[in-house]
Every structure is written in C-alpha cells, then in structure tokens.
Design a protein that fits this description.
The protein starts with 9 loop residues before the first strand and ends in a 5-residue tail after the last strand. The chain is of the alpha+beta class and 148 residues long. Helices cover 20% and strands 39% of the residues. The mean pLDDT is 93. The protein contains 2 helices and 7 strands, in the order βαβββββαβ. Strands 1, 2, 3, 4, 5, 6 and 7 form a 7-stranded mixed β-sheet that branches. A hairpin with a 3-residue loop joins strand 3 (76-85) and strand 4 (89-100). The chain has one domain (5-143): Hotdog Thioesterase (Thiol Ester Dehydrase, Chain A, Roll).
C-alpha cells in the first residue's frame, strides 16, 4: 500500500500521549488504530460534516502497514481521504507522518472500510446525500454504486 501524500488534502496533528508508548519509547502497535480514529473523526467533523443525530458509522475492516517506528519525541500528523464510495460503505485511507526539519516522513499507512449505519434499526443504510456529496467533492473517490 504505497501512498502519495500529494493526493491528500486533509491533515490533522496527532498528540502522542505517555500511555501510547511501550517500554522502549515506541508507540505501541495497537495505538495506531486510535490515531487513525482521531484523524477520521476530525475529517468527518471538518470536511464531511457527518450528522451523528441522523445515523452512525461502524467499521467493517481495518488494515495497518507499519513502515517506520514512531517514538515519544516525534511530532506526527495523519492525512485522511475517502478513496472509494459505494451505496452504504466507503473506504478511508490514512497516512501517518513524522514532521521533521527536512519535511514529512511516512511512517504508517492504513485503510478502514466504513459502513453508514442506523442504530435505531440496527442495519446498514445508504450514505446520506449531503455527506456523500462532500466526500465526492473533496476527495474525488472511486465510485462503486452497486455495493454495500
């Protein structure tokens, strides 16, 4: 999963907490999914303007590719973009970078498959039109119309 950060418009800083670290001062592998979640949530709030009162989102799948370790002294950020959109599901890509004096260094990439979900009826539902339009306009994802 090779990613080009030039393809991404949305970026958010991620704080590294003491509790994120292992004995050696590296970010624990399980914490990367939390970093992705922080970035996704900010993206949904800032770009997609997801209406959580209308319906939710559940994760169907998560993938993480660890490329370089992140340590307690690093400053990091996460890029996020929607890369595929179907009827009720959509893929979100994540790229975690270290911010260095020389520029940004890709440390980790990941993908989550997200499902638009109505908790009142406990089933997947179509992605709301406004949120779909915002994802398409902002990220120009690949469209798949006959999937869940």
């Amino acid at each position: 999963m090779s990613e080009n950060i030039a393809d991404y418009k949305y970026k958010t800083l991620i704080p590294i907490r003491f509790s994120d670290l292992d004995f050696y001062g590296h970010v624990n592998n399980a914490v990367y999914l939390t970093y992705f979640e922080i970035a996704r949530s900010n993206y949904w709030r800032d770009v997609v303007k997801w209406d959580w009162n209308y319906n939710g989102i559940i994760l169907a799948r998560s993938e993480v590719n660890y490329l370089k370790p992140i340590t307690r002294h690093d400053e990091i950020a996460c890029y996020v973009r929607t890369t595929r959109i179907g009827n009720s599901s959509f893929d979100v890509m994540h790229v975690l970078v270290k911010i260095t004096p020389e520029g940004e260094e890709i440390c980790t990439t990941g993908k989550t498959v997200c499902i638009s979900y109505d908790y009142n009826v406990n089933k997947s539902v179509k992605i709301p039109a406004d949120q779909r339009t915002r994802m398409i306009t902002y990220d120009e994802p690949r469209m798949i119309l006959n999937t869940n």
